[in-house]
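Box S1 | Example of a co-folding query
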Amino acid sequence: MSRLKIAIQKKGRLNESSLSILRECGIEIPNGAGKLIAESSNFPIDILFLRDDDIPQYVHQKVADLGIVGENVLIESRKKVSMLKKLGIAKCRLSLAIPKDIPYEGIRFFQDKTIATSYPQLLQSYLDRQAIRAQIEEISGSVEIVPGLGLAAGICDIVSSGSTLFSNGLKEVELVMKSEAVLIGSEHLEGEKALLLQQLLFRIDAVLSSKGKKYILLNAPNDKIDAIVRILPGMKSPTILPLAAKGWSSLHSVIDEDQFWEHIDELKKAGAEGILVVPIEKMIQ
Ligand code: PRT
Ligand code: ZN
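Box S1 (continued) | Returned holo structure for phosphoribosyl ATP
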């Protein structure tokens, strides 16, 4: 029986979240800190722990069948691999930033200037699209300190909360790309491996579908049910069951958690009682 090989980040922002997705898919992974490879005991998959920058290359060379990396790393690598699924984790953006006191009036600011980045390919294609000619200085790590040292007019780096830029006296001026972690795969998986990939994708879909979703149960007088269903627009064909108390029903449905918080007061005013909101572990659609 073949086994799939999936490459994930050894250490860093994507390590824990990649392991969690696999574990939520019911895949048991032994805790082998510092190991290069871990073998799942209940699904035919081996996990390779690598630096994220090496993952597209390993998948391209079929050392690994699958990998989890940021889209930024994938595109920067320019490796021919398939992007199989966006995973909704490690969301961030690649942005241009300059010292906060320098006036900025648009992308032409960067014409003939030097920009420091760890993403020269992504930056170059962005600048080409904007018809800007600039000098790209490739730097690995701590790009945000470069403008302060007077080595570049600006930087192009990953931003998530913005606090790194802020504490280095920089401001974000252009969005180059949005990024999140993606599942990548070698271009042609065949036979048993293709089948295993289908099983894995099915499980990942079930895990991702349930994210941000809650199961809601509430009681209401029968004449208020229509109004309640209208309050929660995400509520799809709720199940309505009669209660033992005459004229009352219980309503069950799946909702977005955000929506619930926005509408809780309206629900109560509309006559909902005994509201229960419970987590959903998996959702098969
Ligand atoms: O050692 P290895 O090469 O494997 O790891 P790495 O250091 O290259 O990557 P790592 O672990 O820092 O990030 C892995 C991936 O997570 C990236 O490729 C992105 O796709 C994604 N990601 C999400 C981030 C961030 N958020 C992030 N905030 N990657 C980096 N950052 C850094 C950024 O470079 C900057 O220094 O965090 C700082 C900005 O964060 P804020 O919150 O202050 O804006
Ligand atoms: Zn890296």
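The CA atoms of residues 147 and 153 lie 6 Å apart. The radius of gyration is 24 Å.
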